[in-house]
Amino acid sequence: MSTAIDLKAFRRELHAHPEISGEEKETAKRVLAVLNTLKPEELLTEVGGTGILATFGKDEKGPQVMVRCELDALPIQEVNIFSHKSVNKGVSHKCGHDGHAAIMTGLAEKLAADRPAKGRVHLLYQPAEENGAGAEAVLKDPRMKDKHFDLVLALHNLPGYKLGSAVVRKGAFTASVNSMVIKLEGRTSHAAEPEHGINPALAVAEILTGALALQHNVPTEDGLRVVTVVHVDLGTKDYGISAGRAEVHLTVRCWTDAELKKLEQDIEDLSREMAKNHKLDVDINYCFTFKANQNDDTAADLVKEAVIATGHELIRRDHPFKWGEDFGLFTAKYKGCMFGLGAGEDMPALHNPDYDFPDELIPHGVELFEAAVRSFLKT
Q1: Into which CATH architecture does domain 7-173+292-377 fall?
Q2: Is the Cβ–Cβ distance between 374 and 191 less than 8 Å?
Q3: What's residue 2's pLDDT?
Q4: How confident is the model at residue 3 (pLDDT cuts 50, 70, 90)?
Q5: Which of 101, 159, 309, 340 has the smallest set of CB atoms within 10 Å of its CB?
Q6: What is the CATH number of domain 176-289?
Q7: DSSP of 288-354, one letter per residue?
Q8: Where exactly are the structural domains of the chain?
Q9: pLDDT beyond 60 at 1
């Protein structure tokens, strides 16, 4: 599958210059430099912040397809020593968004060479996926208000699966995920006289124990509940002071948005009860919210047909993946499908410091996206 654009070199350039969520300005410039050579019919920049929307095809009344990739990297220090290693300290592409962007650019090249006669294809390079803010920012961009998509597609590479295999399922593909910040306010006192203050330590312990007891971390069963303690902050490192404040940070996840709401409420009720028992003020907030990614049945069938038509191995998965993906905001609004693309059985896992997207996966992603898109446009 030869291309004029060196997608491998492009992917490695992105990998070497990663940027965290919301700061992908230079990444966007690199993408734009390539897209400008392909002359899309429409090219929007700074979509939802640093995003790009490139449109191929002139038929506004025909079927409209949107394909999404991501621009952002992670705040992880890379340990790899290859020539395209990250030059930005503490930041690296450990989720493969550099590879996803390269796949999208390969698709753009295919569409530029053979532009859709019916309908249009919109390629979204989305910012800020990792913190869950990007999809919402894109949808709130005023220039997106008048756009409607009959189909939305996205993929994610999957270490642990055979290279080039495709994982497709109907219904939920990724979990509903939220992050909770529970703030407890008591009163400091001298460490020698803790009875004169209100120390939240016991409440923290009880909240942690109680919240973890609420989980049912069995992915093969219904009613999945995962509670993960990600950060606890109690008092200060001043040994003469009994702590007067604390924060507990949790991530919670379930298969559906409704199930997650119930889990959140259970933890809120627990936290408020413990705060009351220990005479503490409590404040609970949420951040980094990811809706469950719900694949439409007909969209999933379309992807399956593309997988079979291109000779790729089709893998059916009985249950969703536990990680969050803000593409769920798009599938909540439009008919769509996110699918997985095997990155190799012996690959480091996503978000590991030694992970690197396999360049040989790029043509597989391009071929699958193009097959699905062109099949849909003929409907």
Answers
A1: 3-Layer(aba) Sandwich (3.40)
A2: no
A3: 43
A4: low
A5: 309
A6: 3.30.70.360
A7: EEE--EEE-HHHHHHHHHHHHHTTPPEEE-SS-BSS--TTHHHHHHS-EEEEEEE--TTPPPTT-TT
A8: 7-173+292-377, 176-289
A9: no
| Pick from 272, 317, 268: nearest CA to 295 | 317
Q: Please, which residues have CB within 8 angstroms of residue 86's CB and are 6 or more apart in sequence?
A: 15, 16, 17, 18, 73, 78, 92, 93
Integer angstrom CA distances of residue 192 from 13, 174, 204, 242: 58, 50, 21, 8
Q: How far is CA 252 from CA 154, 195, 333, 352, in A?
A: 24, 34, 23, 21
Please answer whether residues 294 and 328 qualify as being in contact, where contact means their C-beta atoms are separated by less than 8 angstroms.
Answer: yes
> Any residues with CB less than 8 A from the CB of 97 and at least 6 apart, and which?
69, 70, 71, 72, 73, 129
- 234: its two tokens: 């109690």
In 3D, which of 9, 365, 300 has the Cα closest to residue 163?
365
* DSSP 8-state code for residue 73: B
Q: Is the pLDDT of residue 219 over 70?
A: yes
User: 226 exposed, middle or buried (CB, 10 Å; 0-12, 13-18, 19+)?
Assistant: middle
Report the 3 state secondary structure along 1-61. Answer: CCCCCCHHHHHHHHHHCCCECCCCHHHHHHHHHHHHHHCCCEEEEEECCCEEEEEECCCCC
Asked if the model's pLDDT at residue 18 lies above 50, the reply is yes
Contact 133, 21 (CB under 8 A): yes
Q: What is the pLDDT of residues 155-167, one digit of tens each?
A: 999 999 999 999 9
Tell me how crowded residue 185 is: count the other CB atoms within 10 A of its CB.
Answer: 14
Task: Please state the length of the chain.
Answer: 379
Q: pLDDT tens digits for 105-143?
A: 999 999 999 999 999 999 999 999 999 999 999 999 999
The CA distances from residue 170 to 28, 82, 319, 363, in Å, are 32, 39, 10, 25
pLDDT tens digit sequence for 85-110: 999 999 999 999 999 999 999 999 99
Say what angle helices 297-309 and 362-377 make with each other, to 10 degrees.
Answer: 120
